[in-house]
Amino acid sequence: MKQNFHTEENEGQSRLRTVLSWAVNLAVVVTLALFVVMMFGDRVTVAGRSMEPELASDDVVLLNKLWYNFGKPKRMDVVAFTGKDNAEKIYVKRIVGLPGETVEIRGGSLYIDGTETPLPGDGRLMAAGLAEAGVTLGEGEYFVLGDDPETSEDSRFANVGSVERNQILGKVWFRISPLSRLGFVN
To answer: For residue 50, is pLDDT > 70?
Structure first.
C-alpha cells in the first residue's frame, strides 16, 4: 500500500507555481491590452459639422492606427489626419480620390478620372475650390471631402489640399461617444 505524503515543501512549490502562473497570465493580458489600446484605441473628437450625418460635432471616435500598415487607404474610408502646417490640428474626413487619380468638381458633381462618382453624404459640391480645374494626385496623396461638403474644410481648399499618406493618423472605425450613437463608422 502506497501512501501519499504532502510535505510543506511540496505545498510551497505548488503555491509558487500557482503564483507564477497567475503573474505570467496577468503580464500577457496587460501586454495584449496595451497593444490593443495603442493600435486601435487612439481617440479623436470630431470638430464641426462637416461629417454629418455620419459623425456629429463632439462625437468621440477610435482610430485603427495599424490598419494601413497592412493595406492602403481606400475610397470612402473615413480617416483622421493632421494639417500640413499644423500637426496639432486633426481633421476627420472621407477619402474620395486615390493616388494617381484626377479629381474634378463641376456642376456640383464629383468626377474621378472623368467619371462621375457618387458623393458621400447628401450634399452637392457648390464650391469646387482647387478641384474646379482638376487636381491630379501624386504618389501617396489622397483627396478628402466631408460628408456635408457645404460646411467642410477639405481638399478643395488650399489650407488642407491633398493629404499625404504620412499625415494620415489612422482609419476611423468606431464611435464611443455619445453612448446613444455607439457603434461602427461606415
So the answer is: yes
